[in-house]
Amino acid sequence: MNIHPVSATTDSDLLCEAFRSFDDAAATLQQSYLTMTSRLEQLDVELADRNEALDRNLRANEELREHLTAIVESLSTGLLVMDTEGTITRCNHSGEQLLGLPREQIIGSSLSACLKEAQLDGDAYPLTTQQGAAVALSQHALQTSEGRHAGSLALIQDVTAVRELEDRLQRRNRLAAMGEMVGRIAHEIRNPLGSIELFASMLRRDLKGVPALRGYAEHISSSVHMMNRLLTNLLLYTKPDCSHGEWHETEALMLDALTLAAHAVANTRIDIRLEVNPAASRIWCDAGQMKQVLLNLILNSIHAMPGSGTLTLSAALTEELAPRGPALRLSVSDTGVGIAAALRSRIFDPFFTTRDEGTGLGLAIVHAIIEAHRGRIDVESVEGRGTTLTIVLPHHREVDRVETPESSDPDRADGAGVPAMIDERHFVEEETSA
């Protein structure tokens, strides 16, 4: 047998070289695997970070959406969103309330159809809802960030409070102008009354022995006294003297006013209620003037309830703030015939009355006294159900120090010698609240 050592060596070297190549390839694969594993782990971390960031964004977007929804739903202004076809796609809670329609009926309808259903398709300003609120309607176009048309937005704003402020300002200006005119007329008329009363008293003295003629002089004097009472009312309206402000018991003032009104309550079946909150047990005011205010309002309520009804006098602190503190709310309510809507803006005008025997000064004087106390008076009434007149006064001494314009007015008419023949009932104008 022949042995070839060279061939055996060559095969062994080739085999070793093959194993080395395999080992190198395995090492390369192992390194590639490790690299891939590391990259996969890195990708997993990046993916987890991106997923976490996406979750945060989603949560932030959801919170923002909920926040914006809460803002939209909390708006006192009604908001309606329409698409490019004019179909309402969104409505907030105030929109439902002001339209008086359920959201299910609003969504998917057109704006014109909803306004017609809610009876807000008129041309008057402001519009009046079925609930009695005054509203203003405006419409605006919606555009995307690129400027493309994206629908429209309708806003329904409750302007009841603004309307009341406008009415109150107009009333104040109107009454101020009328008060100045009335004051001048009263001043000019009251001066010669002194002379008439003087000569009438001289005639009574000189005609003691002639009873028939003396009676004429007494009639003149009586008429002068009546005119003086009317002029005193006019001067009280134009320049109420509220200079004696002090702390008083609220319930005591109400009871005093009710006592003065006892003659009107007699022979009626009117139930009288007093509701004084302990926090409002005291009031800073001119007692005499505030008593007259309450008496006027009580008499109005009594006349509005012929025969029977419920008269409620209440006092409480209100959350509404005066310029420097809380406010006191005094209310006189009745269950009478109410005030016609067309008359409510005129009830504080001088000489406006619905009673044949009235002169129309009662509520005008009430308004002037409350204004002098730096307060206001509001009226709420429903025909056939009753009326509530509410007085809102500052409830702190510093602001309520009542200034008296008469103290610095040299032109004030003091009667030119005619005595102020008047008691607490004489200058009460029994105005009706109907």
> Order of strands side by side in the largest beta sheet?
2-1-5-4-3
Please name the CATH architecture of the largest domain: 2-Layer Sandwich
Order of helices and strands: HEEHHHEEEHHEHHEEHEEHEE
Please identify the structural class as seen in this structure.
Answer: alpha+beta
CATH topology of the largest domain: Heat Shock Protein 90
Which stretches of 5+ consecutive residues score pLDDT under 50?
397-434
Q: How many separate domains?
A: 2
Global morphology: elongated
CATH class of the largest domain: Alpha Beta
What's the tally of helices?
10
The biggest beta sheet is recorded as: 5 strands, antiparallel
The amount of beta strand, in percent, is: 15-25%
Tally of strands: 12
Give the % helix.
40-55%
Mean pLDDT across all amino acids? 79
Fourth CATH level, the homologous superfamily of the largest domain: Histidine kinase-like ATPase, C-terminal domain
Distance between the termini: 147 Å
Brief characterization of the structure:
The protein has 434 residues and is α+β, with helices and mostly antiparallel strands. The protein is built from ten helices and twelve strands.
Structural commentary:
This protein has 2 domains: about 90 residues, PAS domain (Beta-Lactamase); about 240 residues, 2-Layer Sandwich (Heat Shock Protein 90), CATH 3.30.565.10. About 45% of the residues lie in helices and about 20% in strands. It is built from 10 helices and 12 strands. The strands form 3 sheets. It has a 5-stranded antiparallel β-sheet with strand order 2-1-5-4-3. A 5-stranded mixed β-sheet has the order 7-9-10-12-11. Helix 9 runs antiparallel to helix 10.
